[in-house]
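Form P-L/3: holo structure prediction, ligand zinc ion.
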Amino acid sequence: MECDACTGKKFLAVKSCLTCMASFCQTHLQPHFQIAAWKDHKLTDPDGHLQEKLCATHQKSLEIFCKTDETCICLVCVVTGHKGHEMVELESERREKQKQLGTTLSEIRRRLEKRENTLKETRRALEQIKISAERQVQEHEKNFTDLIRCIQKTRRKLTERIREHENREREKAKVVMERLEKEIEELKRRNAELKELSETKDNVHFLQTFSSCCVLPADGDSTSFTVTADFSFEDLRKKVSSLKKNLEKMSQWDILTCTPPGLYPLLKSINRIRETIRGNCEVRAKKWDFYV
Ligand SMILES: [Zn+2]
Ligand SMILES: [Zn+2]
Ligand SMILES: [Zn+2]
Ligand SMILES: [Zn+2]
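OUTPUT (holo model):
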């Protein structure tokens, strides 16, 4: 704010006069203290809105507040257009409105604090969600890796057991077949000998050879071969199929329900399958002890 009275270099205003409707520097303000007629001029801190403080109708300074019209009026307005209106001094109205402003300010502070707290809580909740999601992903990743490894191991083991069984059966059949071939050869040889003997005319030779050639060894059961083909993992097959069903169910859970079937029961059923394989294997071993 510059002094309105300075000519040439303008000094900063120290006061504004609402009566003169001008702002003055220290030097140009002096007459207000010296001239008696100016003693009741209304001085304020330097003010750039002096025009706003003038009544638009009477060009007088606004000094009264009409509560009825909620507006600032000049002293001429007071006696002309506001009969019966409730009027107060600007300072008193200002004090009242200042109180209202204080209330509004503290309400703003309260809302700010509340919103800021809510924001903080939301951030914290978000962080928690992130951490929890991370933990769950890792847990499921690990469980699925275990599950897949478990399935692969079980599959390898199962194939191994079936091949082992095939080999044992083959070995067993080979022994029986060799024995049968030997006996067939022996029987053919005996058959030829006896045929020749039956045709000989030499009675002595016939009688002397007969007992050694014609008495056959007991027809034993040693050559029978029982195929233990019933190497059925019926129990195991059921368990694998139920595991498959569970896995399929799990892959569709997000459409059907909100709670996924846990991985734990699946791992458990895989373990049951492994135990079954081990069990079957022991039973097989016992059967073979009996055969050999
Ligand atoms: Zn001046
Ligand atoms: Zn003045
Ligand atoms: Zn007026
Ligand atoms: Zn009024």
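COMMENT: The beta strands are 15-17, 22-24, 43-44, 62-66, 71-74, 87-89.
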